[in-house]
Protein backbone atom coordinates (compact mmCIF):
# COMPACT_ATOMS: atom_id res chain seq x y z
CA UNK A 1 0.00 0.00 0.00
CA UNK A 2 1.36 3.43 -0.93
CA UNK A 3 1.72 6.24 1.56
CA UNK A 4 -0.46 9.30 0.96
CA UNK A 5 1.41 12.59 0.64
CA UNK A 6 -0.61 14.09 3.49
CA UNK A 7 0.61 11.38 5.89
CA UNK A 8 4.22 12.55 5.58
CA UNK A 9 5.35 14.91 8.33
CA UNK A 10 6.85 17.20 5.68
CA UNK A 11 3.34 17.83 4.38
CA UNK A 12 1.54 18.07 7.73
CA UNK A 13 1.27 14.44 8.82
CA UNK A 14 2.32 12.83 12.09
CA UNK A 15 6.11 12.18 12.33
CA UNK A 16 7.12 8.54 12.44
CA UNK A 17 9.59 9.27 15.23
CA UNK A 18 8.02 11.01 18.20
CA UNK A 19 10.82 10.65 20.74
CA UNK A 20 14.11 12.49 20.40
CA UNK A 21 17.32 10.55 20.00
CA UNK A 22 19.63 10.36 23.01
CA UNK A 23 22.39 12.93 23.28
CA UNK A 24 25.90 11.56 23.44
CA UNK A 25 26.84 13.25 26.73
CA UNK A 26 30.52 12.50 26.24
CA UNK A 27 31.33 14.73 29.22
CA UNK A 28 30.24 12.37 31.99
CA UNK A 29 31.20 11.57 35.55
CA UNK A 30 34.66 10.28 34.66
CA UNK A 31 35.41 13.47 32.70
CA UNK A 32 34.19 15.61 35.57
CA UNK A 33 36.44 13.64 37.91
CA UNK A 34 39.34 14.13 35.52
CA UNK A 35 38.93 17.92 35.61
CA UNK A 36 38.72 17.87 39.40
CA UNK A 37 41.86 15.72 39.54
CA UNK A 38 43.73 18.39 37.59
CA UNK A 39 42.46 21.11 39.91
CA UNK A 40 43.39 19.11 42.99
CA UNK A 41 46.84 18.31 41.64
CA UNK A 42 47.79 21.92 41.00
CA UNK A 43 46.13 23.19 44.17
CA UNK A 44 48.16 20.72 46.21
CA UNK A 45 51.34 21.79 44.39
CA UNK A 46 50.54 25.44 44.91
CA UNK A 47 51.09 26.08 41.19
CA UNK A 48 49.01 27.22 38.25
CA UNK A 49 48.19 24.67 35.52
CA UNK A 50 50.90 24.55 32.85
CA UNK A 51 51.41 22.98 29.44
CA UNK A 52 53.36 19.73 28.97
CA UNK A 53 52.12 18.79 32.41
CA UNK A 54 51.68 15.31 33.91
CA UNK A 55 48.15 14.77 32.56
CA UNK A 56 49.29 15.64 29.05
CA UNK A 57 52.21 13.25 29.40
CA UNK A 58 49.88 10.53 30.63
CA UNK A 59 47.58 11.00 27.64
CA UNK A 60 50.50 10.81 25.24
CA UNK A 61 51.91 7.71 26.90
CA UNK A 62 48.51 6.00 26.99
CA UNK A 63 47.79 6.76 23.35
CA UNK A 64 51.21 5.44 22.31
CA UNK A 65 50.47 2.23 24.19
CA UNK A 66 47.04 2.01 22.57
CA UNK A 67 48.66 2.32 19.15
CA UNK A 68 51.06 -0.52 19.91
CA UNK A 69 54.11 1.51 20.88
CA UNK A 70 55.66 4.66 19.55
CA UNK A 71 55.57 8.37 20.32
CA UNK A 72 52.68 10.80 20.76
CA UNK A 73 52.51 14.58 20.98
CA UNK A 74 49.35 16.39 22.06
CA UNK A 75 48.45 19.72 20.46
CA UNK A 76 45.68 22.29 20.71
CA UNK A 77 43.49 21.29 17.75
CA UNK A 78 42.97 18.59 15.15
CA UNK A 79 44.05 21.00 12.44
CA UNK A 80 47.22 21.67 14.43
CA UNK A 81 47.93 17.94 14.50
CA UNK A 82 47.86 17.79 10.70
CA UNK A 83 49.83 21.02 10.31
CA UNK A 84 52.57 19.91 12.70
CA UNK A 85 52.71 16.36 11.32
CA UNK A 86 53.13 17.72 7.81
CA UNK A 87 55.79 20.20 8.94
CA UNK A 88 57.71 17.44 10.71
CA UNK A 89 58.02 15.50 7.44
CA UNK A 90 60.06 18.45 6.10
CA UNK A 91 58.88 18.00 2.53
CA UNK A 92 60.36 20.09 -0.29
CA UNK A 93 58.62 23.41 -0.88
CA UNK A 94 56.68 23.26 -4.11
CA UNK A 95 56.33 19.48 -4.01
CA UNK A 96 52.94 17.86 -4.47
CA UNK A 97 50.83 16.43 -1.67
CA UNK A 98 47.99 14.17 -2.77
CA UNK A 99 44.95 14.66 -0.56
CA UNK A 100 41.69 12.75 -0.18
CA UNK A 101 38.66 14.33 -1.88
CA UNK A 102 36.50 14.48 1.24
CA UNK A 103 38.19 16.24 4.13
CA UNK A 104 38.13 19.31 6.34
CA UNK A 105 39.50 22.66 5.19
CA UNK A 106 42.20 22.49 7.88
CA UNK A 107 44.35 19.74 6.29
CA UNK A 108 44.12 21.38 2.87
CA UNK A 109 45.10 24.71 4.40
CA UNK A 110 48.10 23.06 6.08
CA UNK A 111 49.41 22.02 2.66
CA UNK A 112 48.86 25.43 1.13
CA UNK A 113 50.29 27.41 4.03
CA UNK A 114 53.46 25.30 4.02
CA UNK A 115 54.02 26.18 0.37
CA UNK A 116 53.32 22.79 -1.10
CA UNK A 117 50.95 22.04 -3.95
CA UNK A 118 47.77 20.09 -3.21
CA UNK A 119 46.58 17.45 -5.67
CA UNK A 120 43.18 15.90 -5.02
CA UNK A 121 42.54 12.22 -5.74
CA UNK A 122 39.02 10.96 -6.38
CA UNK A 123 37.22 8.45 -4.18
CA UNK A 124 36.04 5.00 -5.05
CA UNK A 125 32.47 4.80 -6.40
CA UNK A 126 29.77 5.08 -3.71
CA UNK A 127 32.40 6.01 -1.13
CA UNK A 128 34.04 9.06 0.40
CA UNK A 129 37.33 7.19 0.77
CA UNK A 130 40.02 7.25 -1.86
CA UNK A 131 42.11 4.21 -2.84
CA UNK A 132 45.46 3.27 -4.31
CA UNK A 133 43.79 2.93 -7.70
CA UNK A 134 42.72 6.58 -7.55
CA UNK A 135 45.91 7.88 -5.92
CA UNK A 136 48.23 6.20 -8.43
CA UNK A 137 46.65 8.26 -11.23
CA UNK A 138 47.81 11.46 -9.51
CA UNK A 139 51.43 10.52 -8.75
CA UNK A 140 54.15 12.47 -10.55
CA UNK A 141 57.89 12.84 -10.13
CA UNK A 142 57.07 15.80 -7.85
CA UNK A 143 54.84 13.86 -5.43
CA UNK A 144 56.26 13.93 -1.91
CA UNK A 145 53.38 12.86 0.32
CA UNK A 146 49.90 11.34 0.48
CA UNK A 147 47.54 12.87 3.06
CA UNK A 148 45.11 10.02 3.53
CA UNK A 149 41.74 10.49 5.24
CA UNK A 150 39.77 7.58 6.71
CA UNK A 151 36.31 9.12 6.20
CA UNK A 152 33.38 8.42 8.52
CA UNK A 153 35.54 6.02 10.55
CA UNK A 154 35.91 3.53 7.68
CA UNK A 155 39.45 2.31 6.90
CA UNK A 156 40.83 2.94 3.43
CA UNK A 157 43.04 0.36 1.72
CA UNK A 158 45.90 1.93 3.66
CA UNK A 159 47.89 -1.30 3.64
CA UNK A 160 48.26 -1.15 -0.15
CA UNK A 161 48.66 2.64 -0.20
CA UNK A 162 51.44 2.68 2.37
CA UNK A 163 53.26 -0.24 0.74
CA UNK A 164 53.13 1.28 -2.74
CA UNK A 165 54.05 4.74 -1.46
CA UNK A 166 57.09 3.37 0.33
CA UNK A 167 58.31 1.74 -2.89
CA UNK A 168 58.24 5.17 -4.50
CA UNK A 169 59.78 7.12 -1.62
CA UNK A 170 56.49 8.93 -0.93
CA UNK A 171 55.54 9.73 2.65
CA UNK A 172 52.10 8.85 4.03
CA UNK A 173 50.33 11.05 6.58
CA UNK A 174 47.22 9.32 7.90
CA UNK A 175 44.44 11.70 8.90
CA UNK A 176 42.49 9.66 11.45
CA UNK A 177 40.33 12.48 12.81
CA UNK A 178 37.15 10.50 12.08
CA UNK A 179 38.61 7.04 12.65
CA UNK A 180 40.69 6.64 15.83
CA UNK A 181 40.70 2.97 16.78
CA UNK A 182 39.60 1.68 13.38
CA UNK A 183 41.67 -1.20 12.06
CA UNK A 184 42.48 -3.08 8.89
CA UNK A 185 43.76 -6.66 8.94
CA UNK A 186 44.02 -6.42 12.72
CA UNK A 187 46.31 -3.36 12.58
CA UNK A 188 45.16 0.07 13.72
CA UNK A 189 44.84 2.82 11.15
CA UNK A 190 47.42 5.46 11.92
CA UNK A 191 50.11 2.84 12.33
CA UNK A 192 50.51 2.06 8.62
CA UNK A 193 51.87 5.38 7.40
CA UNK A 194 54.89 7.42 8.42
CA UNK A 195 52.89 9.63 10.75
CA UNK A 196 49.35 9.96 12.07
CA UNK A 197 47.28 13.02 12.93
CA UNK A 198 43.97 12.79 14.75
CA UNK A 199 41.47 15.07 16.42
CA UNK A 200 40.11 15.08 19.95
CA UNK A 201 37.52 17.76 19.14
CA UNK A 202 34.44 17.49 21.37
CA UNK A 203 32.34 15.60 18.76
CA UNK A 204 35.01 13.05 17.85
CA UNK A 205 35.23 9.48 19.12
CA UNK A 206 38.04 10.55 21.45
CA UNK A 207 36.60 13.76 22.87
CA UNK A 208 38.20 16.64 24.75
CA UNK A 209 36.52 19.95 25.59
CA UNK A 210 36.41 22.18 22.53
CA UNK A 211 39.35 21.24 20.29
CA UNK A 212 42.40 19.03 20.59
CA UNK A 213 44.69 16.84 18.55
CA UNK A 214 47.26 14.05 18.73
CA UNK A 215 50.25 13.21 16.51
CA UNK A 216 51.64 9.69 16.54
CA UNK A 217 54.68 8.12 14.90
CA UNK A 218 57.06 5.23 15.52
CA UNK A 219 60.34 6.84 14.50
CA UNK A 220 62.19 8.66 17.29
CA UNK A 221 63.92 11.13 14.98
CA UNK A 222 60.58 12.06 13.43
CA UNK A 223 59.10 12.39 16.91
CA UNK A 224 61.79 14.92 17.78
CA UNK A 225 60.82 16.96 14.72
CA UNK A 226 57.17 16.82 15.81
CA UNK A 227 58.14 18.10 19.25
CA UNK A 228 60.08 21.00 17.81
CA UNK A 229 57.44 21.97 15.26
CA UNK A 230 54.73 21.80 17.94
CA UNK A 231 56.46 24.29 20.26
CA UNK A 232 58.43 27.10 18.66
CA UNK A 233 61.32 24.98 17.45
CA UNK A 234 62.40 23.85 20.91
CA UNK A 235 64.72 20.80 21.15
CA UNK A 236 62.68 19.45 24.06
CA UNK A 237 64.37 16.04 23.98
CA UNK A 238 67.83 17.47 24.62
CA UNK A 239 69.19 17.16 28.14
CA UNK A 240 71.04 20.44 27.58
CA UNK A 241 67.95 22.41 26.60
CA UNK A 242 67.16 25.39 28.82
CA UNK A 243 63.45 26.29 28.74
CA UNK A 244 63.92 30.04 28.83
CA UNK A 245 66.65 30.34 26.23
CA UNK A 246 65.19 30.88 22.73
CA UNK A 247 68.70 31.00 21.30
CA UNK A 248 68.65 27.20 21.48
CA UNK A 249 65.58 26.89 19.24
CA UNK A 250 66.19 25.03 15.99
CA UNK A 251 63.99 26.93 13.54
CA UNK A 252 60.90 29.17 13.39
CA UNK A 253 57.74 27.43 14.55
CA UNK A 254 54.50 28.30 16.28
CA UNK A 255 53.14 27.40 19.70
CA UNK A 256 50.57 24.62 19.35
CA UNK A 257 50.56 23.57 23.01
CA UNK A 258 47.47 22.21 24.71
CA UNK A 259 46.74 21.94 28.47
CA UNK A 260 46.24 19.41 31.23
CA UNK A 261 42.47 19.94 31.53
CA UNK A 262 41.88 19.07 27.89
CA UNK A 263 44.27 16.13 28.05
CA UNK A 264 42.77 14.72 31.24
CA UNK A 265 39.32 14.67 29.66
CA UNK A 266 40.70 13.16 26.44
CA UNK A 267 42.42 10.45 28.47
CA UNK A 268 39.12 9.56 30.11
CA UNK A 269 37.54 9.38 26.66
CA UNK A 270 40.42 7.26 25.34
CA UNK A 271 39.86 4.72 28.11
CA UNK A 272 36.28 4.38 26.92
CA UNK A 273 37.15 4.21 23.21
CA UNK A 274 36.78 0.41 22.79
CA UNK A 275 33.26 0.64 24.25
CA UNK A 276 32.46 3.66 22.06
CA UNK A 277 33.61 1.84 18.94
CA UNK A 278 31.76 -1.37 19.82
CA UNK A 279 28.45 0.41 20.40
CA UNK A 280 28.67 2.57 17.27
CA UNK A 281 29.76 -0.33 15.08
CA UNK A 282 26.96 -2.54 16.41
CA UNK A 283 24.44 0.15 15.50
CA UNK A 284 25.82 0.47 11.97
CA UNK A 285 25.84 -3.30 11.48
CA UNK A 286 22.24 -3.60 12.68
CA UNK A 287 20.88 -0.79 10.52
CA UNK A 288 22.81 -2.06 7.49
CA UNK A 289 21.12 -5.45 7.78
CA UNK A 290 17.66 -3.89 8.13
CA UNK A 291 17.99 -1.27 5.38
CA UNK A 292 19.62 -3.57 2.86
CA UNK A 293 16.86 -6.12 3.39
CA UNK A 294 13.81 -3.86 3.71
CA UNK A 295 14.34 -0.58 1.84
CA UNK A 296 14.03 -0.31 -1.93
CA UNK A 297 15.76 3.10 -1.84
CA UNK A 298 18.40 3.15 0.90
CA UNK A 299 21.36 0.88 1.54
CA UNK A 300 24.68 0.86 3.33
CA UNK A 301 27.69 -0.33 1.37
CA UNK A 302 30.00 -3.03 2.75
CA UNK A 303 33.21 -1.91 4.40
CA UNK A 304 36.62 -3.40 5.03
CA UNK A 305 38.30 -3.93 8.36
CA UNK A 306 36.83 -2.78 11.67
CA UNK A 307 35.42 0.75 11.59
CA UNK A 308 35.32 3.37 14.31
CA UNK A 309 32.04 4.84 13.17
CA UNK A 310 31.77 8.64 13.12
CA UNK A 311 28.70 8.89 10.90
CA UNK A 312 27.00 6.44 8.53
CA UNK A 313 26.86 7.14 4.80
CA UNK A 314 23.49 5.88 3.57
CA UNK A 315 23.31 5.40 -0.21
CA UNK A 316 20.13 6.55 -1.94
CA UNK A 317 18.96 5.05 -5.24
CA UNK A 318 17.87 8.37 -6.69
CA UNK A 319 16.45 6.73 -9.82
CA UNK A 320 13.74 5.10 -7.70
CA UNK A 321 12.64 8.44 -6.24
CA UNK A 322 12.67 10.42 -9.46
CA UNK A 323 15.97 12.22 -8.75
CA UNK A 324 14.27 14.03 -5.86
CA UNK A 325 16.91 13.41 -3.22
CA UNK A 326 16.64 16.86 -1.63
CA UNK A 327 12.90 16.53 -1.06
CA UNK A 328 13.32 12.90 0.02
CA UNK A 329 15.87 13.87 2.67
CA UNK A 330 13.75 16.78 3.87
CA UNK A 331 10.92 14.30 4.32
CA UNK A 332 13.15 12.02 6.38
CA UNK A 333 14.28 14.93 8.56
CA UNK A 334 10.65 15.89 9.12
CA UNK A 335 9.94 12.30 10.20
CA UNK A 336 12.65 12.69 12.84
CA UNK A 337 15.65 10.97 11.23
CA UNK A 338 18.91 12.57 12.50
CA UNK A 339 21.03 13.28 9.46
CA UNK A 340 23.10 15.58 7.28
CA UNK A 341 21.34 15.54 3.90
CA UNK A 342 24.13 17.07 1.81
CA UNK A 343 27.73 16.75 3.01
CA UNK A 344 29.72 19.85 2.11
CA UNK A 345 33.24 18.64 2.88
CA UNK A 346 34.27 18.04 -0.74
CA UNK A 347 37.30 19.97 -1.96
CA UNK A 348 35.83 20.14 -5.44
CA UNK A 349 33.06 22.41 -4.11
CA UNK A 350 35.35 24.95 -2.48
CA UNK A 351 35.91 27.66 -5.06
CA UNK A 352 38.20 29.62 -2.73
CA UNK A 353 40.72 26.76 -2.81
CA UNK A 354 40.95 26.11 -6.53
CA UNK A 355 43.52 28.80 -7.25
CA UNK A 356 46.03 26.83 -5.18
CA UNK A 357 45.78 23.74 -7.41
CA UNK A 358 47.76 23.20 -10.60
CA UNK A 359 45.59 20.23 -11.57
CA UNK A 360 41.82 19.75 -11.93
CA UNK A 361 39.85 19.52 -8.69
CA UNK A 362 36.86 17.64 -10.09
CA UNK A 363 36.23 14.34 -8.29
CA UNK A 364 33.19 12.80 -10.01
CA UNK A 365 33.08 9.65 -7.85
CA UNK A 366 33.11 11.64 -4.60
CA UNK A 367 30.58 14.14 -5.93
CA UNK A 368 28.24 11.39 -7.08
CA UNK A 369 28.66 9.55 -3.76
CA UNK A 370 27.62 12.70 -1.93
CA UNK A 371 24.77 13.55 -4.28
CA UNK A 372 23.39 10.02 -3.94
CA UNK A 373 23.63 9.65 -0.17
CA UNK A 374 23.00 11.23 3.19
CA UNK A 375 24.96 10.96 6.41
CA UNK A 376 23.13 9.38 9.32
CA UNK A 377 24.19 10.71 12.70
CA UNK A 378 25.09 8.21 15.40
CA UNK A 379 26.47 8.03 18.90
CA UNK A 380 27.17 5.24 21.33
CA UNK A 381 23.80 5.66 23.07
CA UNK A 382 21.80 4.59 20.02
CA UNK A 383 20.45 1.04 20.26
CA UNK A 384 18.13 -1.42 18.51
CA UNK A 385 15.07 0.71 19.28
CA UNK A 386 16.62 3.58 17.36
CA UNK A 387 17.47 1.24 14.48
CA UNK A 388 13.80 0.26 14.29
CA UNK A 389 12.61 3.87 14.52
CA UNK A 390 14.90 5.04 11.72
CA UNK A 391 14.07 2.10 9.45
CA UNK A 392 10.34 2.64 9.99
CA UNK A 393 10.68 6.31 9.06
CA UNK A 394 12.69 5.48 5.93
CA UNK A 395 10.20 2.83 4.80
CA UNK A 396 7.33 5.29 5.30
CA UNK A 397 9.03 7.90 3.13
CA UNK A 398 10.10 5.22 0.61
CA UNK A 399 6.48 4.20 0.04
CA UNK A 400 5.46 7.68 -1.03
CA UNK A 401 8.45 8.62 -3.16
CA UNK A 402 8.65 5.33 -5.06
CA UNK A 403 5.03 5.78 -6.19
CA UNK A 404 6.07 8.97 -7.99
CA UNK A 405 8.06 6.97 -10.54
CA UNK A 406 5.75 3.97 -10.90
From TrEMBL:
The active site is at residue 204. InterPro entries: DegT/StrS_aminotransferase, PyrdxlP-dep_Trfase, PyrdxlP-dep_Trfase_major, PyrdxlP-dep_Trfase_small. Gene3D superfamilies: Aspartate Aminotransferase, domain 1, Type I PLP-dependent aspartate aminotransferase-like (Major domain). It holds the Pfam family DegT_DnrJ_EryC1. One of its GO terms (molecular function) is pyridoxal phosphate binding. The modification N6-(pyridoxal phosphate)lysine is found at residue 204. It comes from the Bacteria. One of its GO terms (biological process) is polysaccharide biosynthetic process. Keywords: Pyridoxal phosphate. Belongs to the DegT/DnrJ/EryC1 family. PANTHER family: DTDP-4-AMINO-4,6-DIDEOXYGALACTOSE TRANSAMINASE, TRANSAMINASE. This is Glutamine--scyllo-inositol aminotransferase. It comes from Pseudoalteromonas luteoviolacea S4060-1. The lineage of its organism: Bacteria, Pseudomonadati, Pseudomonadota, Gammaproteobacteria, Alteromonadales.
Amino acid sequence: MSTAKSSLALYGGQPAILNSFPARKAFGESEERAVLDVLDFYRDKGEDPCYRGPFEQQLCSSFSDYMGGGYTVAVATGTASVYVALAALELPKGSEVIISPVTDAGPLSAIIMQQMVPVVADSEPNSFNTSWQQIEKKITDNTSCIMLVHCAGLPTDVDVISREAKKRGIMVLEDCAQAPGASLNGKLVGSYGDIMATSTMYRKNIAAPGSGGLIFCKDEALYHKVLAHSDRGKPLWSQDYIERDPSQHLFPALNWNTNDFSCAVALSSLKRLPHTIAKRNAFMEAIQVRLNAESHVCSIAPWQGTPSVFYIQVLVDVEKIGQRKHEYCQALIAEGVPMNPHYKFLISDWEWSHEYFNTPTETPNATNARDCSFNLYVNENYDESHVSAIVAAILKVDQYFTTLTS
